[in-house]
Amino acid sequence: METPTALPSLSEKTSDTLLGDVRTTHASDDVRAVDLKPILQIMDKILHDVGVINEKNGDNVTLKKNTTLPPFDHGMLETILADVQNVSGELSCNCPGGEDAHATTLKLLETLKTYTWNAKVVLALAAFTANLGDYWLLLQRGNANSLASSVAFLRQVPEIERVNTLREEVTKLVQAIRNLAMLNAKFVMKLHWWYFSKDTQPITDANLEITRAAYWTIHSFVRMASLLGLRNKNTSLTTEAGKALIIQLENEVSQIYDILKHHYKSCKVYIDKEIEDAYQSLLKLMQRPGGGDIVAILNRFLCGQGIDKVDIDKLRCKNVLFLITDLDISLEEITLLNELYEKTDKYEIVWLPVVDGLYDKQKFMELKAHMKWYTNVPAVLEPAVIKYIRQVWHFIKSPIAVVLTPEGEVSCQNALPLLWTWGNAAFPFTAETEKKLWHDRYGWRLDFLFDDVVDPEIRKWIAEGKLICLYGGGTMDWIQQFTTGIKVVFARIGVMVEMVYLGKNNDNEWTGNVIKKLHGHNIRVLQSERLLWARLRSMLYLYTRMSQGKTLRKHDPFMQEATKILAYDAGEGGWALLCKGAEVIVRLEGETALNIIWKYGDWENYAKRYGFLEGLSYYMEDQIIPHNCVQFKLPFVSSEIPGKLECCECGRQMEMYYMYRCLQE
Length: 665
Description:
The protein has about 675 residues and is of the alpha/beta class. It has 25 helices and ten strands.
């Protein structure tokens, strides 16, 4: 690919002394990552809504009502808005050009010292845009609203007539600044920062020019803010002088844009080639006939160029389980893996965190602190390694565990469903071992689903043959009505039943909200709710995969029970299982559950004759209970497609779909 033609740099107007002063404002050892996309969206909304960029006519444009703002991570919002507010305050000061503008620019850079140079520009523009929107609101309402007029005077907002005469020039300048901010954001979001630590061409040239451009861009913001903020007649600029300054600033910003665009293209060509070359090298390493030394593979995955080499000697001649996750892996999952890991010496676990440049450092360290296996790994892996993990091992979002033999061969592309289902008995995680485990299983029973890790007390109740009520899903009203109603029935017939709420699949915060809002109902919940659902999904996935395309029939007890729980939970209503020991006797769903409980008088004689659960079961067999055919979701696991299923209600074969679910709530 042809290298773009070089453009003049900003070196002519940036002395070594000035560049040194600029660099001293940057804390390179603690660079804070920022998700710039929502900030850019908010900035665009402000620029679109203010009259300054209305190109159709000279009329003022009012703010749109009920416009939805983009989703924003509140943790990140809290950490950066204080800095943006400080920059906004500095820009609001009526600082003229020259030395005062230089001093203000350095002060703003100092305020933004913990961000990358590109992010500094975007955040400074966010502050400038907020001030612009603030000014424009006051200008629009000043003539008709005395409060707005008074605030405009105190804020030294210029007269609207004067600003309207500069509309065309201001519009071009704001558009140029916006384009420059978007380009700076592309450096952060499109080019992997991993390569910007390398002392090679064209990275070094780009880093130098980015630093210079950050200074001069923010310098332009300061001068523009000065122009907008001057109102006093003794110091205000004339219209012609104002136009000349704005045109000058627009030319400067456009020149900076052209220079950075040249470096962006050069860096993109270079980085794309580096990633592709490293990826092809990794493919050759992993495709060697007969495998290779596991240490060579570990070195390649963990010790990419630019990352300190780690000590992996203790992993030599070991089966290695690559635990591949983002930073959303739960502490419950880590706890279970810790227990499994400490009970065996057959394999080692190595964590491969898949994060891009934007990640929560504190959360990364907290997760590492809870892990008892090998975590001496870089926080950000080499981009080619991440590309391999995603394209070859099909990692998307859900954690996977790739198993490598001591010879470096992949023996299992995802062992997590096996570990959640069988524990260490699944080692060495081969298809033959899995088939044997299923052949030896003792059918669908609660003690196959619950163990001491999920909830030791439930395990004890099962062993003692107690009556157990397991329920989940539902709305707050359903949970309250069901809990109250069934406790009344239990008290009336004088039986002791242990009740546990199992929460909802794929909703980690729901149970906490239930406890908070229904605290007076003494709702007992699982100790490891997320693990239960992960195990249930894993069991069904493995069981259907084992069928190798055969249809699993309605009468299969395992398929029936597993699909019913997942299908019940996928609906809006609640559900309940009434059990005796390890056996599920009665299943109740949604409104049917409430109707059956509150009509206890209708089946009281059944309960007295046959016992509580048996009597209820006989009564329900005599009733006409409507049912709905089921649907549910299984997570995408590597590239494998599970087997076919029949509906557990009507017996017809179920259709399969791909579903893409946005993780932003």
